[in-house]
């Protein structure tokens, strides 16, 4: 039996940004305050979840390396099921829903089931990290191309990354902490200079943020010795060269 369209709820795929509640869009904050069901990732900051409606049901579908609270297909089914029951659902994702957030898969599942879906963009991790660390991902003098890649993809060793980093280009690697050694080895094998500048940005735009700098060949040691943990991004390119004024500004902000 089909459900009348006016009785079907709407699913909102909402970007929560990097974690700072002040970096939410106004629409994201408004939807979060209204929805009675919030399905959220594990990396969504508790301060953002505290902005939800007091009576909202919060459902965690946290994903961690080698452990998923709920498989992706079950998350999609959950969103569809709640909407077909007449509920508006906020699916809250760290960063932006469409940048390594599987928002495309969830939107497709909703559309296939006849559930209205809206995507509310958020500040991506790459944009947030670049801004917080004062690293311009594109720069007229240093980089006219920027690429985003996932560092934990299964076929890492089989992919050709030769055109993604180098002179005039910036490479931003998501989810690359655990595979930093393989990433460095891969990029060097594909022709990138071992002394190419890199930055590792941990907990971007949060009070505990760290910006670690080095060169590509030393990336594995940097990650291991500094005990870098997710969430963290690896940025590779000349735009990451250390600048005293930028570092001074970051240090000042950290003290405030």
Structural description of this entry:
- The protein has 256 residues and is an alpha/beta fold.
- The chain has two domains: 9-123, Cobalt-precorrin-4 Transmethylase, domain 1, CATH 3.40.1010.10; 126-255, Tetrapyrrole methylase, C-terminal domain (Methyltransferase, Cobalt-precorrin-4 Transmethylase, Domain 2, 2-Layer Sandwich), CATH 3.30.950.10.
- The protein is 29% helix and 23% strand.
- The protein has eight helices and twelve strands.
- The strands form three sheets. The protein has a five-stranded parallel sheet, with helices on both faces.
- GO terms for molecular function: uroporphyrin-III C-methyltransferase activity.
- Keywords: Methyltransferase, Porphyrin biosynthesis, S-adenosyl-L-methionine, Transferase.
- It comes from Croceicoccus naphthovorans.
Summarize the structure.
It contains eight helices and twelve strands. It has helices at residues 26-34, 46-49, 72-84, 103-112, 125-132, 180-189, 219-225, 244-255; strands at residues 11-15, 37-40, 57-60, 63-64, 67-68, 89-93, 117-120, 143-150, 168-174, 197-202, 210-215, 232-236. The strands form three sheets. The protein has a five-stranded parallel beta sheet, sandwiched between helices. A five-stranded mixed beta sheet has the order 8-9-12-10-11, with helices on both faces.
């Amino acid at each position: 039996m089909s459900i009348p369209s006016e009785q079907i709820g709407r699913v909102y795929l909402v970007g929560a940004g990097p974690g700072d509640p002040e970096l939410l869009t106004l629409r994201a904050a408004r939807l979060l305050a209204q929805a009675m069901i919030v399905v959220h990732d594990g990396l969504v900051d508790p301060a953002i979840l505290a902005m939800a409606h007091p009576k909202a049901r919060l459902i965690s579908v946290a994903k961690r390396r080698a452990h998923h609270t709920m498989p992706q297909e079950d998350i999609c089914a959950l969103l569809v099921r709640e909407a077909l029951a007449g509920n508006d659902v906020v699916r809250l994702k760290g960063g932006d829903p469409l940048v390594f957030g599987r928002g495309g898969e969830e939107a497709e599942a909703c559309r296939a089931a006849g559930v209205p879906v809206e995507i509310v963009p958020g500040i991506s991790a790459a944009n947030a990290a670049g801004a917080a660390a004062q690293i311009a991902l594109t720069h007229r003098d240093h980089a006219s191309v920027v690429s985003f890649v996932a560092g934990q993809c299964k076929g890492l060793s089989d992919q050709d990354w030769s055109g993604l980093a180098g002179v005039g280009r910036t490479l931003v690697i998501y989810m690359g902490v655990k595979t930093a050694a393989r990433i460095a080895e891969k990029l060097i094998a594909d022709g990138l200079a071992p002394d190419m500048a890199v930055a590792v940005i941990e907990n971007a735009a949060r009070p505990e943020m760290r910006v670690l700098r080095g060169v590509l060949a030393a990336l594995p040691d940097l990650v291991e010795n500094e005990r870098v943990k997710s969430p963290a991004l690896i940025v590779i390119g000349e735009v990451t060269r250390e600048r005293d004024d930028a570092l001074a500004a970051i240090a000042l902000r950290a003290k405030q």
